[in-house]
């Protein structure tokens, strides 16, 4: 039963000239003074979510984004700050891109954030999708097999560090501690993470993208929960993926219902009518496709379509590019009056009885004022249809 509502912020600044006919993605470049406005924007969103009773504010880690789309390089530092300017909101790592970290440094930093915020930070890991980010930090991404091998070994190390009083590790990429290291008269055999998180076992989330059996089984083995959609252009519930996730939980020994340990993410836009909402939100949807399409996260796009996306003289007239009206019709983008959104979410929870959490957010490019107005409206007229069914104390952890 749905009773927790989150929101995701990829870290985009306010920008103009949006949509298929607007400024090409690779032509956007903002000065540092504009890029740093993302932190005030994140604070404003967090305080709004906190005031309105949302559960978790998920923040994305990204690097080198002079285009202005994803401008938060350190989730944990920002989460500690946001914990000081909010009262109860949880701050989610959505996600720490593990191949860009040394696993022990990530484990230490999360442990400190856990302690300093009184347990209000939720851990999350991801493999990455920007070559400019991952490969510049010296990790593989174009070699997807190597990327997954590295990621899985790093997560193994992080969980050892979190949950074992002391540990060692011998793997393909890491030997911890290194062999034959002398220390105070003895040879080092194990290490202890200092500090470790106070709240253990650590709850961890990961995006579900390719939904391969290997990836899902790895998550289920380690008790990692899954987030589907809501950050890239293609969002919403994918029945095949949700069934595959349930099957992975069952292979791990859990007789779970459909939707268990999942969060399903949607972009949304409330309006007096669906037609009005589509007209107003189309440019934000299109900007999102422009940004994520060349990264192969809009899986239906061909090479030709991706080339068209980069040309503002062709893209608005291309009949086969993704359009918001079709995304709304498919249920991937929630759009229209509150009663329609409630109906769609009620249908979702009827189909997936194990689902407790939904994440609602906005495409990259959506201005701060629109985000805040929409979050307020959603909290006032959509959320109560779900949260009022459980005691208020159960909706806030």
Indicate the topology:
Layout: E1 4-9, H1 32-35, H2 37-52, E2 56-59, H3 75-85, E3 90-93, E4 96-97, H4 103-116, E5 121-126, H5 131-134, H6 144-163, E6 169-170, E7 175-176, E8 182-183, E9 186-187, E10 204-207, H7 213-222, E11 225-228, H8 239-251, E12 262-270, H9 274-292, H10 303-309, H11 324-330, E13 333-336, H12 338-351, E14 357-361, H13 368-381, H14 384-387
Parallel strand pairs: 1-2, 1-14, 2-3, 3-5, 4-5, 5-10, 10-11, 11-12, 12-13, 12-14
Antiparallel strand pairs: 6-7, 8-9
Helix pairs in contact: 2-13, 3-4, 4-6, 7-8
Describe this structure in words.
It is a single chain. The protein is an alpha/beta fold and 397 residues long. The chain has one domain (4-94, 208-395): TIM Barrel, CATH 3.20.20.30. 40% of the residues lie in helices and 14% in strands. The chain has 14 helices and 14 strands. The longest helix is centred in the middle third of the chain and has 20 residues, at 144-163. It starts with a strand and ends in a 10-residue tail after the last helix.
